[in-house]
Structure formats: C-alpha cells, structure tokens
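Posted in: Protein Modeling Q&A

I'm a second-year student putting together a small comparison for a lab meeting, and my supervisor asked me to include a predicted structure for tRNA pseudouridine synthase B. I've never done this before, so apologies if this is the wrong subforum. The sequence is pasted below exactly as I got it from our records. If anyone can share the structure token output, I'd also love a short note on what stands out.
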Amino acid sequence: MEGILPLYKPAGMTSHDCIFRLRKILRMKRIGHTGTLDPDVTGVLPICIGKATKVAEYITDAGKSYEGEVTLGFSTATEDSSGEVIEEKRVDRAILREEIVNTLTKLTGEVIQTPPMFSAVKVNGKRLYEYARQGIEVDRPSRKVNIYSIELLDDRETFEGDLVSFRFRVSCSKGTYIRTLAVTIGDMLGYPAHMSYLQRYQSASFLLEDCHTFAEIEEAAEQGRVQELLRPLDEGVSHLPKFRINDTVAEKVRNGAVLEIPENLLEEEGPISVCLNDGTVLAIYRKHPAKPGLIKPDKVIRNEPE
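Accepted answer (user: helix_wrangler)
Welcome! Here is the predicted structure, written out as tokens:
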C-alpha cells in the first residue's frame, strides 16, 4: 500500500494518536504524519503511507491555512481554551471592526514569535511542554514566521461584551503558532486573549474536502479498498516548483546526478520537484551549496523505472 491519506483529525487526539490508530486499522507500520496538530485542533492531517513517507517532510514544510477564533477577556497558560486562566480583564469598551482589521493587517508578513511553553519545541533536548508540566520556565528561542494572509470572518461593525470573540482565516508558513497569533491580536487590542477554536483547512495541496474520517477509513479497510482513499505520492509535492525532464535525463536523476538549474528556476531557494513530462516525480533537488548554477538531489524518490 502506498500513497497519501488526507485524514480529518478529530478533536481530542494528538497527531501521534492518529498514527497509532491508523497502524492498527491498516495493519502496517510504515506510516507517518506531516506536522503536529494540538489535541483540540481539528482538520487536515495528511498521512504518508509506504513509499510516500519519503515526501512527508516536504508536506510538513509547506504552507498551512486555518480558520480560528480569538476570545478577548482572559488568557491561559496554554494559549488555548484548555489551559489554566492566568490573566483576566473584561472588555470594557466597544471594539470597532476597523481596529480589528487594522490589527490583522499589521500582522501580515514576517513576524517574530516565541513558542508557547506548552509546545513540542525542544530546548536542551527536552520538549517545552515537559518543562511546563514540571512548572519550570525556560528561555524559548524566538523564530521568524510568515503570515501570508489573514482576514476577519465576522461582519459585525462593533464588538461588545465582557468577552469578545471573532473568527479569522489565516495562511502562514511552517512553524507558525496560531495560539500565539491569537494572544498577539489580543495584546494589540489591549486585552488578554486566547485561541478558543482552530481548524486547519489546508496543508500543502490537501484541502478539508479531500479528507476522510476514521469511520470512513475503517469501513474501507473492512471492505479491502483503502487504496481507493489514497492520493498519489506525487500530490504530496505538487506545491513545489517543477523541473520537467525527458527520459534521457531521467536516468541521470535516478542515479543522483548533479544538474544545471533551468533558467526559469534560477531564483528558487527551496526544494524543486524533478519530474517526467507526465508529472511522475523522480527526485527532489536543491541548489548546490558549493557550485553556482547547479542543483543536487535532496532525495531520490524513484530510482527505478516503473
């Protein structure tokens, strides 16, 4: 069995829980997920099966899109609704739509984030959430992330009440913490805040409507038709720039040869999908670190003709 299974991750499960359950359903071990989703978060979690695990990292590194909700009025230790309340301040004024839209606009582009203590980021070989559970506060490395777009999904002109909530849609780079983004939005509006809801609706080229629930997967497994639910390995890297080659060059690619960068890809700094004219991906290449004008294989996906 080989391919990518777009899973609808339910609330209450970690990404690792999902893998554990799928291994039991599919009765195979070579399964990997493509980026951690917190237990409370639902939505798109592409699962790589068999040879498709070779492209898992490229899906993980791709952009993601979410629909979330910010609640102003209190913040929590985990920055979402499951954590202990650490600060409260009732919303004592009407917040205008224009204020929120301007705040979201200011957060578009490159921003600096500090990962929350309750996160899987490692410091000195230990996950931050492990320190947090022991009540230990440690210095956390800030990181640059990119917010490609963010928009308000609420059509109200004024927002009032002791607690104020509003939904937003965001597309962002790998490593962006939407929980932290929600807290930042609150800070900029003058109130403690947390993320009260989050669903991922896109990961790389996979959308919410592509996803299958555990119930659907279990039914397919009982009927011996799981392969019908799987998307081709090539779709996992369809978001990458493409370098199409002929059969003569293909043999060199399968053997890991260094290639000249095609003119249309000279500005690309990230991975490049090297594929046949029919779209079959043979390898992922990157710019050669020591030889200008050349690209070298990052990973050979198919080393034999099929």
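A couple of things worth pointing out for your meeting: Helices lie at 15-26, 56-60, 97-106, 128-133, 178-189, 214-222, 247-254. The CA atoms of residues 261 and 292 lie 9 Å apart.
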